[in-house]
Amino acid sequence: MRIHGRHYRTIFPAEDGEGVSIIDQTKLPFAFALARLSTMEEAAVAIRTMQVRGAPLIGATAAFGVALAVQRDSSDDALAEAVRVLGATRPTAVNLHWALARVERRLAPLSGRDRVRAAWTEAESICDEDVEQNHAIGIHGARLLADIHGRTGRVVNVLTHCNAGWLATVDWGTALSPIYQAHDAGVPVHVWVDETRPRNQGAALTAYELGAHGVPHTVVVDNAGGHLMQHGRVDVCFVGSDRTTASGDVCNKIGTYLKALAAHDNGVPFYVTLPVTTIDWSLDDGLAGIPIEERAEREVTDLVGIDDDGVVRDVRVVAPGSPAANPAFDVTPARLVTGLVTERGICPASREGIAGLYPDYARSAAE
Ligand code: MRU
């Protein structure tokens, strides 16, 4: 992704080779700022406070967090502690656990300098693979958009929820990758961006990304999607996922389920975009099995914005004394999902559909 004429990934090794640079997403959309992570603890804080966020990027950050930990102390105890601390940062995105397990497996037989070198290499490979996978998701998803345009001859109206763009991944994004690729290929696309309360990842991050790329878009309140669909103003929904079960239940940012219900009721195709790293092969039933993160009340009771003097302020919007609840994700049952758009192609959201695209993974999961 290009910002201010320069290509960025959301995370990359710092120039001195001893730290990690991230785009600090808590500053967006009002300022574009890089932050440095020098220790495993700083990586854990960055994930917990959502300086970095989005399932694939959380996984990549955790991998770099392990590299920072073993660079300081390459003992088995330090490795185990890093995996424990980073693994406890956020409960829902399965990419976190996938990345930690992968790095731990790779480092377990090594020691000393070899372990440190391998940790950095593994974290960088996870990033490179994420970029490739998201690019491939974009190619498959862009075909869907081109088909809709071919059929209707009109601008394709896509509705998206939360931020599943390049800021949620290392680059390209999942749900936004098809949109960028279709737009770049000349398919006229317009995006309805759900603001995505309480953290407003849509209004703050998706709108920022789409604006930077020049994609026409309109921000709507989270409650508007159903109305837009009833009036034929949405051709297709593209959302991301934080964890998808082996039978196609999709966990994603809170509010996704309501959009899927509205899409189902109005005959609007509802696609979920995800790389293989987001599939939890150990789970079938998403409602019963996926831990849903409960975040701070304050994210609901307060809003952060910029005033006319350019000062970023946090203001309370809820009646004083009223408690708030803040479940951060929900589960959309597979039956409401039209298809999963992955780096290997598009499949039905079902055990058979997923196993058909990923026979190798399905086989090892069954062993
Ligand atoms: O709480 P967040 O911002 O880390 O939530 C994750 C998301 O951005 C999404 O729900 C997204 O759609 C899946 S990540 C590509």
CATH class of the largest domain: Alpha Beta
SS elements, strand count? 18
The CATH superfamily of the largest domain is: Translation initiation factor eif-2b, domain 2
The poorly predicted ranges are none
Rg measurement, Å: 20 Å
Indicate the overall shape.
globular
Category from helices, strands and their pairing: alpha/beta
Span of the ends, CA to CA: 40 Å
Distinct small molecules bound, one entry per kind: 5-S-methyl-1-O-phosphono-5-thio-D-ribulose
How do the strands of the widest beta sheet line up side by side?
8-7-6-9-12-17-18
CATH architecture of the largest domain: 3-Layer(aba) Sandwich
Oligomer: single chain
What helical percentage do the residues reach?
40-55%
Report the average pLDDT across residues. Answer: 97
Q: Do you know the CATH topology of the largest domain?
A: Rossmann fold
By DSSP (H or I, 4+ residues per run), the number of helices equals 13
Biggest sheet character: 7 strands, mixed
Number of domains: 2
Strand content: 15-25%
Characteristics:
single chain, 367 residues, alpha/beta, Four Helix Bundle (Hemerythrin (Met), subunit A), Rossmann fold, 2 domains, seven-stranded mixed beta sheet, 43% helix, globular, binds 5-S-methyl-1-O-phosphono-5-thio-D-ribulose
Describe the structure.
The mean pLDDT is about 95. It contains 13 helices and 18 strands. About 45% of the residues lie in helices and about 20% in strands. The chain has two domains: about 1-130, Up-down Bundle (Four Helix Bundle (Hemerythrin (Met), subunit A)), CATH 1.20.120; about 135-365, Translation initiation factor eif-2b, domain 2 (Rossmann fold). A hairpin with a 4-residue loop joins strand 10 and strand 11. Helix 2 packs antiparallel against helix 3 (about 75-85) and helix 12 packs across helix 13 (about 360-365). The two termini are about 40 Å apart. The protein has a seven-stranded mixed sheet with strand order 8-7-6-9-12-17-18, sandwiched between helices. A four-stranded mixed sheet has the order 13-10-11-16, with helices on one face. The chain is of the alpha/beta class. 5-S-methyl-1-O-phosphono-5-thio-D-ribulose binds near residues 56, 164, 168, 201 and 252.
